[in-house]
């Protein structure tokens, strides 16, 4: 994939008589996350590294930190031109991105990180309604990634459904709020960046999150118990949401260079967030004395049953709130893609590079970059 693409890009540069690095386009990028988080360390840093491999140095990458634009401000940053490319979380804006966010409503169905990122990528690229609303929003979509399966990270260990009752839990979106409410907990919708402060001040009792958050957001200092139950994965991401103006200013060849780097970085990010970082965080948690609680089988089964039943709820929500009459069909379409990519991920042994190649072959190689995002 890469050798052929880079050779083609270099040939284009030579044909135009441009030396390496001439007329490089400034590309302001922002992960919206702190440096330890995989969204920075293995997504946006990786993008910069991959773009640096371009022999023509097409892009001059300028990275902006969360102190300039955080996740909550990413929409404004993209729409005002503060950033050209940013990490956008669609569940923060369901009213404006209902078609795209429908898949996010199915977060509880996630199991395999690579499969979920790939499934959402294929779904969104080929969903005409998703593409139109992204255009109306002012961004171009370049792929998604996923976390590992979420856990309950709490100040008091949770083992049974009874233990959940009354707990105030940080929720990253509607499906997690529904889960909390179903088990008698109280969902609290705050930015993930505010989790540490909210837990330390007693505003919340814990969070439904990746175990990696123990390190990414310093929760290892506050959490006392970690409980694994079927909570799905967080995959409702637009990892490299590109401002329409920036995309329009690129040639198809430049878009291809950017897209290939983004596709590789998406897989790199998912490998880190979904597979490698959890192991590192677990070791740190053990050293900190955090208890890894084996959930009561009844709670595990109840959580799994709720995740399956919540698919229909997701369809109903989309139909009632946004008039999406074919929501059930779209849910079925997305779940079929999840099953397809779970099989592929299993086939390649959840290998990062193999998954990047398959996503390229199955999705991006079929996209006309002269018209995509227009």
From TrEMBL:
Q: Sorted alphabetically, which keywords does the UniProt record give?
A: Periplasm, Signal
A Gene Ontology BP annotation from the UniProt entry: transmembrane transport
Which GO cellular component term is one of those annotated? periplasmic space
UniProt-listed Pfam families: DctP
Provide the protein's localization.
Periplasm
Q: Where is the signal peptide?
A: 1-24
Q: Which CDD domains match?
A: PBP2_TRAP_DctP_like_1 (cd13666)
Q: Which InterPro entries match?
A: DctP_fam, TRAP_DctP_sf
Specify where it is mainly localized.
periplasm
Name of the molecule in the record: C4-dicarboxylate ABC transporter substrate-binding protein
Lineage of the organism: Bacteria, Pseudomonadati, Pseudomonadota, Alphaproteobacteria, Rhodobacterales
